[in-house]
Design a protein that fits this description.
It is built from ten helices and ten strands. With 284 residues, the chain is of the alpha/beta class. It has a single domain, classed as Protocatechuate 4,5-dioxygenase, Chain B, CATH 3.40.830. The strands form two sheets. It has an eight-stranded mixed β-sheet, with helices on both faces. It has a two-stranded antiparallel ribbon with strand order 4-5. α1 crosses α5 and α6 packs parallel to α10.
């Protein structure tokens, strides 16, 4: 059967993609950030996942204020990079995993999670920037991807508890899939940042560090954090961190941290990254 072998948390700052796309990754400003992902790149080359369930938020490319699904699962054969106003990123087309995606859709819906099924979906920097950080700039992505878009743009977003429980439902779905697949799940977005208003540029290292600690040690406590606390402590865009709880829920009740990275700043944002294993993971 398929199994979830790892969970990854990662920021998806659009300026990171722009730095790569314009060959600015060797600029002194960007070198420390990209060096922080070297360990993960090497680890990923050894892990060789078959499929990544990539939890992200759409930034008004495939969805708009006219249609706002809370959870939207991509079931297509492939997903084109989205045009976010300056042309699509020059990255490979994302190859889907429709058999597993449809199985997950059926399983979680019968598990009473109402989701939107997307047979066509363009994916923006929320998905492609983490792919670039983990795999660099290949001619083709070395993994198939199931996009899972979460509404963290228009109030009300899902609660942390709903996200944690959704992750648990995804784990049940994956483990009931009959094909032997190495599956990872990534939660993206965050960490603390605010893009507008009097607090534009807010970064809260103490909050971010505590959040990374609690992903391993206290996910249930994190799941009870109300939306207003994210906004107060991590800025208006810090609410993206609830998506990391979907990843954490899919790892089971206990997980162990393999490594992490934290960097300030990238654009006007704190960049966070963590790699987790399910506590019950056993090497083949």
């Amino acid at each position: 059967m398929a199994r979830i072998t790892a969970g990854i948390g990662c920021s998806h700052v659009p300026a990171i993609g722009a730095a790569l796309d314009n060959a600015r990754d060797t600029d002194p400003y960007w070198v420390p950030l990209f060096a922080g992902f070297d360990r993960t790149k090497a680890w990923m080359a050894q892990e060789k996942p078959d499929v990544v369930i990539l939890v992200y938020n759409d930034h008004a490319t495939s969805f708009s204020l006219e249609m706002i699904p809370t959870f939207a699962l991509g079931t297509a054969e492939e997903f084109e990079p989205a045009d976010e106003g300056w042309g699509p990123r020059r990255v490979p087309v994302v190859q889907g995993a429709p058999d597993l995606a449809w199985h997950i859709a059926q399983s979680v819906i019968l598990d009473e999670f109402d989701i939107t099924i997307c047979n066509k979906l363009d994916v923006d920097h929320g998905l492609t920037v983490p792919m670039s950080l983990m795999f660099g700039q290949p001619e083709a992505w070395p993994v198939r991807v199931i996009p899972l878009a979460v509404n963290v743009v228009q109030y009300p977003p899902p609660t942390g508890n709903r996200c944690l429980n959704f992750g648990r439902a995804i784990r049940r779905a994956v483990e009931s899939f009959p094909e032997g697949l190495n599956v990872q799940i990534w939660g993206t977005g965050g960490m603390s940042h605010q893009l507008q208003g009097p607090r534009a540029g807010l970064i809260n290292r103490e909050f971010d560090t505590a959040f990374l600690d609690r992903l391993t040690s206290d996910p249930i406590g994190l799941s009870r954090m109300p939306h207003i606390d994210y906004i107060r402590q991590a800025g208006s865009e810090g609410i993206e961190l609830v998506m990391w709880l979907i990843m954490r829920g899919a790892l089971g009740e206990e997980a162990r941290e393999l490594f992490r990275f934290y960097h300030v700043p990238a654009s006007n944002t704190a960049v966070g990254h963590i790699v987790l294993r399910p506590a019950d993971f056993v090497e083949d």
